[in-house]
Amino acid sequence: MTARTISQGILRSVGIIVGVVLLLYFLWKIQSVIAYLAIAAVIALIGRPIVLFLRRKLKLPNTVSVIITMIFMVSVLAGIIALFVPLLTEQGKNLSLLDINQLEQNLNSLHQQIVDFIGTAPNVVDEIIEETDFEKTIVDSLNVGFIPNFLNSFLDVLSTASIGLFSVLFISFFFLKDSNLFQRGILAFVNQNNEGKTINSIDKINNLLSRYFVGLLLQIFILFVIYTITLLIVGIENAIVIAFLCALFNIIPYVGPIIGGVIMVVLTMTSNLGMDFSSVILPKAGYVLIGLLIGQLVDNFFSQPLIFSNSVKSHPLEIFLVIIIAGLLFGVVGMIVAVPGYTAIKVILKEFLSENKLVKSLTKSL
Length: 366
Hints:
By secondary structure, the chain is mainly α. The protein has helices spanning 3-29, 31-56, 62-96, 100-118, 122-132, 134-141, 147-177, 181-187, 195-234, 239-248, 255-270, 277-310, 316-352, 357-362.
């Protein structure tokens, strides 16, 4: 091996490394665009069954079917946002009429009732309150100096969200209108010999993920109904909004239901501040916990097996391990994208490495 060959190899390696670094930097700079494309792809997968129904059953033109589908999904989104308007308006009104002294008394009263109920020794409680200066902490935490900064940040987020929403809807429309648009973009980077396998993989992935996301919406809807009924029976204000918010957390596997449950219990308790803990607050919190338990039992034994087994055709234990590993590697985002990502990888492996023994065992159900 000559010195010239070695130097050429080194230069080629350095060039590849620099190219990869530049590509990663470019992808990092356009991460917002990548996020818009990903969200638009998910919306297109969810709307795809509706478009197919309108085209095949009602014999509508493709463009008309897409427009009707987009109007329907935008209407659903607007309805969801409208649900939160009364809650935000009421909370804003409550903040404008906030009595700091009364709030402090209610919180201290609730704290003392909890302590009395669980039977904690008075001298221990006094020491804790004295060490943490409980009353002073409450008043200091209600400092309103942060409001101008919060409003500026809120306006920035609102502006970014508006641009993002328009971009996502615009891209989703064309993904739905031309279902092969995404496919042609991928085929531009694929060797001609592998185009057939790539097209088959994309079609299978589209079908599986469409069923998965539709099933996920059904799962959220079932939990929303159960939570709404529970909160209405207990008599919690804005029950529909709270139920929807808590059901939405179920998108995050395993951790989301815990977060949603904590939010429901806390909002139940804080909505009854000033009332007796043992006769009002605790029973209502207990009823909410029962409703949460019923919702999770229905979800674990009906909704999840239906979604995972029938839509993505994977064993529940297999899904559990994939979600845990993705969560350890990439956090909450990894847990959310674990199932669709794993499904896409399985389809690609089966199409390109169908003779491999391990691939055969993993993709037997596909």
